[in-house]
Amino acid sequence: MEPKLRVENLSVWYQRQPALKHVTLSVEEGEVLALIGPSGCGKSTFLRTLNRLSEEQVGVRVTGSILLGDLDIHQPQVDVTQIRRRIGMVFQAPNPFPFSIFDNVAYGPRLQGAADPAALRKIVEQSLRQAALWDEVRGKLRRPALALSGGQQQRLCIARALAVNPEVLLMDEPTASLDPLSTAKIEELVGALRGQYTIVMVTHNLRQAARVSDRTAFFLDGTLVEVGPTRQIFTAPQDSRTEQYLTGRFES
Amino acid sequence: MGRGRRLYGLSAVLAALGLAGFALVLGSLLKSGLPILTWHFLTSSGPGGIGPEILNTAVLCAIALVVTVPLGLMVAVYQGEYLRRRSRRVRELDHLRATLMSAPTIVVALVIYRVAVGWWHWPVSLMTGALALAVINWPFMVAVSRSALASVPDSYREASLALGASRFETVIKVVIPAALGNLIEGIGMSLARLAGESAALIVTAGVNVSQHWSLWGPGETLAVHIWYIRTEGLVSGRDAEAAATGLTLMIGISVVLWLASRAARLFGRSQGGYDGA
Amino acid sequence: MSMPSVTDRMPRRAAGVAAGLFGLVGIVVVASLVAGAWPMLGEPRSVANLIGAVWDPLRGRFGMAPFVVGTAAVTLAALLIAVPVALGAAVTVVHQMGALMREWTLRVLAVLTAVPSVVFGWWGLQMVVPWVRNRVGGPGYSLLAAGIVLALMILPTLSLFFAQSLGQVPKVLREGSAALGATADQTLLRVELPVAMPALVNGLVVGLARALGETMAVQMVIGGQTALPRGLADPGATLTTQIFTDITAFPPGTAGHAVLDIMALLLIAAMYVLVRAAERWGGL
Ligand SMILES: Nc1ncnc2c1ncn2[C@@H]1O[C@H](COP(=O)(O)OP(=O)(O)OP(=O)(O)O)[C@@H](O)[C@H]1O
Ligand SMILES: [Mg+2]
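ok -> structure tokens follow
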């Protein structure tokens, strides 16, 4: 089967400083791919090139290609907003807009011109259900999003991303700022979304990677060391550096 | 690029428009004023010289600052260090300060004219002008001091208080030194504002320079001079003289602000404080 | 707050006295104006006189409408010109400049906020009045000229406040919007401006207060006519310029001076309302 995303020979520099070097990696349709590696190894950088968020910053240079289906998304003539609708993102700390719960979820559809209240309400409800938040916020959709708990806010951000119907979901340490209970909920949610969406998730929590992902990629110093089925990476890594990292012999 | 960035383009056009406006102001000021801006012009008195006006401006600003810097700081210390945060008195003082600060200076002049000239029989003079400037600047100094003190983290205060220091010792030894950079920057800003004041001084300090300089004699300042010769004066070449006076004033103000920001950096100005109201 | 210690008693009292004096200044300002205005405020006939449109002190007609209208027109014109330009400048500073350029621009803007108003008045006489005379007609001295001059005068203040407001919008919100497929314009309109709105309102109020209270820059170019203006190209007068021109013409104690005190009270009341509005809707 054709992979959903095919990254080839990707390199990224901040000013002159290389952050990613010749990364080649494929993501299969409907799988959950975990990205692990020590702090500063380029996981976030990698994720942010997948939806071209990297170019919002000055001084970032990207070479190589990223194919979404057969579209090379870093070609200059490609409309970046189209790419970002197809590839959604959830950030490390929940970042809901300081609007109502409803307006947060409706934000993406409205960008594309959706204005019909009934249709919007349907999209909002469906997205909140998918993000396992509906039962907690039904009837309170006009409340400010910032009044929700951290875990709820993060699920709201997931609902917000789902509302534009993306094919791929990028998650950068989505539970890093949450308590264990909220973390468990998000993990459960990721499990439920698997298959329907292609998910690339950065995590520092190795057990989380082991619990939720189908495959795992290990990054070190801007290079991809190895990628493979999660079970195999965790039990029989091919590269000694992966083993060292997993057994805690890197400072993190 | 380009797609969906039309507002950015529009913004750049608008910004260029604003820039062009200021280029016109500064350009015409330079064009008219620079040719006659000589040492003689700066130092001599009488027509074709602004020596006395420079002196009067400096004296008025100096008196007003000497009076209002300590007074402003004291009010701010009382509000910020002695009263409970968010207490009613703090809010009332804040309202008073904000209202006085935005009150037109001509209104202050109206009050000073009645009180000092009318009731106390002060002459229209440098002293009366200095009083007006002090009243104008006090709320500004309170605002400057308030935000400078507020920029000092509470942890500093707590650390000092925990060591057994009194509130006062904490303010003197910890809070004010930590706020010094911002204070100096704000004082520079208020000095620049005072140097440019005209309406209130025309009424209280007059439009003449006296032969025998005295604090109780009339004292025309640079800003007043610009207005006077341009609108009331009958001298030939008044445009040029007004422009040269304006240039002198602008250069003085720029130097003050530059020195203040240099000094402020020396004393560790904290970030993000370009809010000179 | 803990018990005041012994060494705190004196300094606390001194600071309290300073604050009391400060309050006294406020009281004296308002009280002296009220005292001066009292003879005119007392009787109903003079109140009708005051809100009229005819200003003819020699005949005892003290209608303030021309000045209220003049103040409103000039302030509104200034804001209509300055607010869009300042917003544009702010967007440019925040989004289209490198860090170094941005820092310098902000520093220059801060210096420009301190340009004395007479300098703007001088420029108005030099360029704006002739321009209005040639392009719009009339004597050139006009509400329009005053509005243009004021607009330029408040532009640095507004730009600085607006740039600061937009700059405070958290980057994660902008990125969150971009990640949902928003264009730069959409993010600006739908996230940055709404999120920055309280701070923007604050800046707007500061600019409004400056425009409302400005005297000299306006006085130099407005023409000083006391009849009710019929258009922006007409000469006119504002509350502040009228106080300025008549303050020495009517000595304290006369009816004319009392009317000036009333105008001053109006201005102070307006400022107080603005202060409270900024507190209510602004981001302070
Ligand atoms: N905006 C930036 N400008 C310059 N260098 C950057 C920038 N962002 C990241 N870097 C550098 O690029 C490298 C990779 O950073 P990145 O954020 O991708 O790491 P990461 O693997 O996500 O780390 P963490 O686990 O701490 O989130 C680091 O050395 C970092 O210092
Ligand atoms: Mg990261």
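Chain B is about 75% helix and 0% strand.
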